[in-house]
Amino acid sequence: MDFTASKKSRDLLERLQVFMDQHVYPSEHCHAEQLRAAENRFAALPLIDELKDKARKAGLWNLFVPPSHGEYVPHGGLTYSEYAPLAEVMGRVTWSPEVFNCNAPDTGNMEVFMNYGSKAQQEQWLKPLLAGAIRSSYAMTEPQVASSDATNIELRIDKQDGEWVLNGRKWFITGAMYERTKIFIVMGKSDPDNPDRHRQQSQVLVPWDTPGLSIVRPLTTLGYDDAPIGHAELLFNNVRVPLDNVLLGEGRGFEIAQGRLGPGRMHHCMRLIGAGQRSLELACQRAVSRSTFGRALSKHQSVREDISKSFSEIEMARLLVLKTCDKIDREGVQASVDMIAASKTTVPLLVQNLIDRCMQLHGAGGLTGDYFMAEAFNYARWCRQADGPDQVHQMALGKQIIDRYAG
Amino acid sequence: MDFTASKKSRDLLERLQVFMDQHVYPSEHCHAEQLRAAENRFAALPLIDELKDKARKAGLWNLFVPPSHGEYVPHGGLTYSEYAPLAEVMGRVTWSPEVFNCNAPDTGNMEVFMNYGSKAQQEQWLKPLLAGAIRSSYAMTEPQVASSDATNIELRIDKQDGEWVLNGRKWFITGAMYERTKIFIVMGKSDPDNPDRHRQQSQVLVPWDTPGLSIVRPLTTLGYDDAPIGHAELLFNNVRVPLDNVLLGEGRGFEIAQGRLGPGRMHHCMRLIGAGQRSLELACQRAVSRSTFGRALSKHQSVREDISKSFSEIEMARLLVLKTCDKIDREGVQASVDMIAASKTTVPLLVQNLIDRCMQLHGAGGLTGDYFMAEAFNYARWCRQADGPDQVHQMALGKQIIDRYAG
Amino acid sequence: MDFTASKKSRDLLERLQVFMDQHVYPSEHCHAEQLRAAENRFAALPLIDELKDKARKAGLWNLFVPPSHGEYVPHGGLTYSEYAPLAEVMGRVTWSPEVFNCNAPDTGNMEVFMNYGSKAQQEQWLKPLLAGAIRSSYAMTEPQVASSDATNIELRIDKQDGEWVLNGRKWFITGAMYERTKIFIVMGKSDPDNPDRHRQQSQVLVPWDTPGLSIVRPLTTLGYDDAPIGHAELLFNNVRVPLDNVLLGEGRGFEIAQGRLGPGRMHHCMRLIGAGQRSLELACQRAVSRSTFGRALSKHQSVREDISKSFSEIEMARLLVLKTCDKIDREGVQASVDMIAASKTTVPLLVQNLIDRCMQLHGAGGLTGDYFMAEAFNYARWCRQADGPDQVHQMALGKQIIDRYAG
Amino acid sequence: MDFTASKKSRDLLERLQVFMDQHVYPSEHCHAEQLRAAENRFAALPLIDELKDKARKAGLWNLFVPPSHGEYVPHGGLTYSEYAPLAEVMGRVTWSPEVFNCNAPDTGNMEVFMNYGSKAQQEQWLKPLLAGAIRSSYAMTEPQVASSDATNIELRIDKQDGEWVLNGRKWFITGAMYERTKIFIVMGKSDPDNPDRHRQQSQVLVPWDTPGLSIVRPLTTLGYDDAPIGHAELLFNNVRVPLDNVLLGEGRGFEIAQGRLGPGRMHHCMRLIGAGQRSLELACQRAVSRSTFGRALSKHQSVREDISKSFSEIEMARLLVLKTCDKIDREGVQASVDMIAASKTTVPLLVQNLIDRCMQLHGAGGLTGDYFMAEAFNYARWCRQADGPDQVHQMALGKQIIDRYAG
Predict the structure, then answer these.
(1) Is any Cβ of chain C less than 8 angstroms from the Cβ of D122?
(2) What is the residue range of A334's domain?
């Protein structure tokens, strides 16, 4: 038994922490100011570009790329277990993953291109994505149906006159508002009558400026627009793209979705561990800096119980994530759906409640933008819905466990 | 034993519900649009003015005024028990209390003027407040200290050259951003060395345009700025007002604060019951309108358990509020601090969790502005800090109960 | 609005409290000793007989009887609202309800005889039950099926040769072990093929010494056998009783069950409020009597938060029970199934958790028989299963609420 | 990173599981029967002796012994990480650890003798303990004081006439009722005025038949007497033992207590993981074997959510325990007090709630002795008090974490 990360991971971690200390934490105020002052909230921020340059030069770039695609990155690929401690650190500042070209949804989209893209598609889209020159969106969720059940999806992808024609509506399309986003991977139904319900879907590539594709509006969650990356509602009105724009092949959209979403869920969990850990540290610092009724907060038994509980919880959540990563590394994503579902349905809720507790320790100020907790709280809350509501994953996991012990 | 409200209350409730159905619910989209389109987010919205006119004409105005001040209102005053069901209904739309001139912090401030104001102060400020012509703020909380302990307060109110001179900083000053807010009631220390720690404080009136008073910035909670009323950080830099501007008398600030805050907490609780109740109703409507995996949500056992639990919880919370109101009506605020603390520390947390559950049933959309739940969630969360963090009230209540049973 | 009980209820409450102070609390140790020393744990205890005599003389007898059956009792009947505060006080000592002839399952069985019994049945069984001379059991639950769904019941009641013949198995039959129990009301299927699934059942009376009826074993819950009343598993092997022994009529067993169980659930809830309230009081007393690390428990912020939370919870639970009682009093049991289900699924769980918290404050001793909390904890836990698991009631309540708001 | 146990541990695990399947699970009913039929509930059960013989022969004996004391056991010692999966399996049957000579408090006491005993003490007591021939008790907790704070301890150990004379009272002395228990390790104050509060205590050995030592009574927790090992209240009335009976030396009692209790807490946690895991498996089996309202429990969404949640929780708890063990193995007990406290304050509560959920799925039967869950629930509940209430450990852990992040 060995709970330590690999040497490679530990070395990168050390460099990443130095980078965060030198460049990221000191820029948090500046980030807030640039965003507040921006005319267009979905424009790229100068600060991010500066930091991206520095991170690229520091070799802290595309750390999410797994060994199976090691050819794309100088570091040769990091396993999930190796990446987890790094993503955790990035999770300590909600906007920092982009600095390292490790932000959702681009990481997942790049993996899609690596796994399923044609040479031409990789050349056109994967290369600039890996370089951080453009951004991308993944359009799956729909407003009218429970789209966590992929068979409910209604957007139509019809073959007409040697083209794909898309009609339908999507929402919660992360990145769609961002001015740098140039390509959308769109899931829809190309063969809705196929008796095999998992062959009805296809995924096609839609460049951002394709006629007929329009942004209806940005969406907020708990009051946050998550600018500049953001989430949007989209309308596809007779959007036409070449037949070559299909990914992997007609009728294979479900397969791609399955392959894409597991890792994405784990990336969210890794980052949330960092968000929780930082909140815990802030709560400790608050506890020694404030007094009520003649007694430092840190000496109140209730505060110590809160801190103790938060420490234990974040430790357990971290271990669950690491064990899931280890299982993926050894046995692959498909064999690890039980642990992925366990992480996905446990970590966001646990971290949400932990942050809530840490915010409460900060008085009214804890809810403001003066600390990163309120935004991280929103991130955790949102993850309970992202990539499917927890309940859907609990349904699948519950069924699997019942079969395991009572099959 | 009788759980029904008085005839007077029931009659007003019926009229209020009709008003909500006819004028308020249909305007929710318009309110969001006017606010989104506003150049100044803290300007008065035309919609609100229209609705205020209608509410005034409908006799649904200043319903918060208690019988002890019945002379100020045509309805002659409503007890807490009579007002609670009305405030609950107003809580179903977060911005609606202003329509009925029943919004925080103006209600509490008007009560302060009624209870402690001089004739001249009442003439100048109370009258236009009751008419809804101006708005007001109550400046108590400070950023540098745990100000739920009033003896920590640092803002100085010094007597110099026949004037009060104020120096210090306040934050979370609700209404301070609002363009209609004309008067600030400011709590500070006029006699910091007084051995009686509850005689060190005074409250003085500061008109909004007094030189030296400046708004540092608006504050957000969980991403919401609560515009147009909002919350602000304020700087008092040698702010000078006449000696007459003291309320009640020098050294009586603590006494005023005690009298003001109990009722305010109950008003929040009443409205939160309405917020929770509406969320429950939305969840029921959602449950019948969506299906996952071939089964209406309403038929999932887990959904029924959630609905059942939410119904029971909101019923209990409502009863706790009503019994507290009844105690205040019969025995006064001072004798009811136990029940007020029980309500204050129970209802916001319960409603926060209930709304969280109802949002989750709505999928990702539940977190957006398309439903009122996300904003109501923020309101509930905020109330766990407003008027002092729950923990401070639990400390006092716990002590009181221990004394009661083990004294 | 009026939260006070009727004069009649308050007068009885005062007398009941005096009785508890004088006779019951001082006998708790004696009760434990008599039970420990008993050769047969299910024999009647001398202490109980002495106290029953005193209670009867004090007019604190059969307080559960409602006004609709006022002719059976000198007090003329008490409404649910009037009885609730009295049952609460009885709940402060788990074995005390029998002292007042108000214990389950006899109260429910007496109501069955009042509502559905023939004159002859009332003469033979109801009279001695009201006198406290004999005890009774209600045999519904079965070990092999989920018997909260009455259509699952398997015990057969067949008409043969002018007699009812019973065959089957029951368990959790409260009182069946008790040496004074002389009559069993048995639910079974007399017409299992009836297309109306609610006409398949009948209830028949089986005297304890009928051949073929045998006690398989006593049952424990969390280690408690609840002696001397206890719970048992029963075997019916060709048990024969006269046709007259049917209650109300053939095929009306379901109807009787519906009428019987609602009130029983409320009686449990009322008593649990008392169990919770007493635990809270014990916790307060503990808090002032122990110190850790140089500080009285009562001064630890975490203890104050626990006490504060417990006070608020018990208050809410009590109000929920009272409002349910008030609804039953005004509108009847059938119209109140929503509130009965809300009480049944909320109060036992809430009280279980509250007692758990109060036990924890007592250190290891809190789990022993030195305090009444451990036994009360078991009672609360058991009530989450008694009369059907909470989940079954949440299913029904959830459905009803969804229909109400989205019908 | 590597989550797999060592080859040695895995081999033993496989043999242990075979042993459990062949000998222990099939004997559960027999154990209950022998205990029920026993004239003296605290006599040794024949079944246990048979199984002990088999386990000894199978080499599944004294598995708790760590490598530092490998000379005592043929297996050469197992690290905490190696032992944890084995203790987990033993935790699946609450009485089974004794079969493998791995039960509390004997394991901890044997470690005390190994670490602190003189050659003579080891010869007299450790040898027969390792052989399973006798049993032992550890007498620390006192009824009158919060003895989790060792400086509160009141039992006196005075040097008189060349002997130690003990006077005082202890309770919750596990094993004291058991007929095989021959030696008590007793903590008391030999130097109550020593200014160093951690040098006031000594620990001395008291044979069970020493005059003046009497058993006041057995104690129960939630109705369980945990026979035959049990817990007792003891009276020391001028109990005299030779000066040689002191362990390690006068004034070193606190030091011994510190060394003993950390490992003991981890053993409890390991076993509780097994208790939780088995409850989860039972719940899965129940879910497929029962139907309500025409639908197998396993298909109810709420059941799947419960199973999913339980799986995730037990996985997290197991990982927390394993990581703690790994830290102890690498850095020692003293450096691991943070993780030991995290385990001690997390695992029992988590497992208690998990078992509660699994019992609820079993209907009323889940609370009886027909399943092992009720007894395991009691074990988990008890562990929240054993070796000090959770709150005391949270106080220490909270302080340590605050110092770590805000020191």
Answers:
(1) no
(2) 255-406
